[in-house]
CYLD hydrolase (Struthidea cinerea), 227 residues
Amino acid sequence: QAPESSPPLRNEAAVRVLRGRMKGIQGHCNSCYMDAALFSLFSCTSVLDSMLFMPFPRCDRNVQGILRDEIVSPLRRTGFVRASSVMHLREQLTDKGQCSSFTNAEKDPEEFLNLIMQQILGIEPLLKLQSGGQKEQECYCYQIFMDKQEDLVVPDVQQLVERSFLSSDLKLVEIPSCFIIQMPRFGKEYKMFSKIIPSLELDITDLLLDSPRECCLCGDVATLECS
């Protein structure tokens, strides 16, 4: 355990601490969905560190302490988290949640995020989405849904997000403080893409609702949008 707080890893420090054998979060008993989610959310970014420290109204301080002291701090300081630490968190989620199989079954990452963010820590939704002018929806992460497209062989995240929003007629109601994106996947037998290139920056200009954008023909402020 590493009870004191540690900053997220950046640049050369991230490579030095996280690269090599016995690095990352140790997997055990179908924990991969949670291991990957926790690593993505905390290893190299502080955007969700409020989950570790803020006394939210409905916050379970015990779960918050396990997440902070047994998982995030060791990951950032030594680059390694024992499977027993993740199991400790999974046991607490089983006790607090409506599902009894968090300790042994594979789950959808969205199910894990909704449980820990909404029911256990009481965080406000991170995303506000609107589809086709209907009532806005609030959520904690966005899962990419799209049909197979032959022209995309090795896509990047920017392409996938834009095409997914377009096919679902979605817009972001406002700029999100944190944009958690779940890549498309279809189990062990079939993968839509063998590889996806991470986009180091994400341009959401065209995804924002009622955002001023320039006309692609004359350069002035656009008044019409064509999909």
In short: The CA atoms of residues 19 and 79 lie 8 Å apart.
